[in-house]
Amino acid sequence: MSSQELFEKWYSGRRLNMTYSAALEVWEASRAAIEIELPQKCGHLNMVNGHVLPEAAAYDEAIDDCADVLTEAGLKIKGES
After folding, report:
1. Is the terminal CB of the chain with fewer CB neighbours within 10 Å at N or C?
2. What are 34-37's contacts with CB under 8 Å, separation 24+?
3. What is the torsion angle, in degrees rounded to the nearest 10, for the CA atoms of residue 67, residue 69, residue 72 and residue 78?
4. Nearest to residue 6, comparing CAs of 30, 38, 33?
5. DSSP code of residue 77
6. What pLDDT, on the 0 to 100 scale, is given for residue 81?
7. Is 39 helix (H, G, I), strand (E, B) or coil?
8. What is the distance, to the nearest Å, from the Cα of residue 64 to the centroid of all Cα atoms in its chain?
9. 47 forms bridges with which residues in the sheet?
10. Could you give the C-alpha distances from 74 to 27, 38, 52, 53, 78, in angstroms and in order?
11. pLDDT reported for residue 13
């Protein structure tokens, strides 16, 4: 279940003095305020004969995968717009 679905489930069980759209706006603003700093990629530092070592390539790919998941969750990655 996505974080927005969890929020909607939580919201539906409460009677707040706020419209759903206003509550969703607050939720979105809270997500936008979060910025994650990922580790630096290392592929460019781990080359042999002009080729990136497989371990370094896999490490860099894992960082990209993490960035994708975080972005899909509505979080910002530090240094990216």
Report:
1. C
2. 34/75, 34/76, 35/75, 35/76, 35/77, 35/78, 36/70, 36/75, 36/76, 36/77, 36/78, 37/77, 37/78, 37/79
3. -30
4. 30
5. E
6. 67
7. coil
8. 11
9. 52
10. 10, 15, 31, 32, 13
11. 73
Q: Which residues of the chain, if any, have pLDDT below 70?
A: 15-16, 81
Task: Give the separation between CA 30 and CA 23, rounded to whole angstroms.
Answer: 11
Pick from 56, 55, 6, 78: nearest CA to 70: 78
Alpha-carbon dihedral 54, 52, 65, 34, rounded to 10 degrees: 130
User: What is the torsional sign of CA 57, 59, 65, 70?
Assistant: negative
**Residues across the chain:** 81
Residue-wise pLDDT tens digits, 65-77? 999 999 988 888 9
pLDDT score of 44: 87
**Cα(54)–Cα(15) distance, rounded to whole angstroms?**
54
Measured between its terminal Cα atoms, the distance across the chain in Å is 26
